[in-house]
Design goal:
This protein is mostly beta strands. The protein is built from one helix and seven strands, in the order E-E-E-E-E-E-H-E. 5% of the residues lie in helices and 34% in strands.
Length: 110
């Protein structure tokens, strides 16, 4: 069984070519034969390189802030309530011929 390496462990990792393995806003330190120990954002690094392997390590991992939970709730006149995770889903499940209002709810995280 193959596991994905944790590139955010602070260790040096060899890289030869491919897609960026970390978030583009992550700060990395990179060592190549042409440039010694340069710190930069991962998104500006040329990961699909032609000039041979290089070493990199994560110096500051970028973590996306959690998105607030959003729900769309269909409330029918007969008391039935259906909860959906997307506006299009709520619209799709509206029952033809029944009176329904849709309430959009968003989590407050402050």
């Amino acid at each position: 069984m193959t596991t994905t390496p944790d590139y955010n462990d602070g260790a040096w990792h060899a890289w030869s070519a491919g897609e960026c393995p970390v978030h583009p806003e992550t700060l990395i330190e990179i060592f190549t034969p042409a440039a010694n120990f340069t710190e930069r954002r991962a998104g500006i690094t040329h990961w699909a390189v032609n000039y041979g392997p290089f070493l990199f390590r994560v110096t500051k991992q970028h973590i996306e802030p959690p998105q607030p939970l959003e729900l769309w709730v269909n409330v029918y006149d007969n008391g039935q309530v259906l909860v959906h995770k997307a506006a299009g889903e709520a619209e799709y499940w509206r029952e033809v011929g029944k009176t329904c209002r849709t309430v959009h709810m968003r989590e407050v995280t402050e």
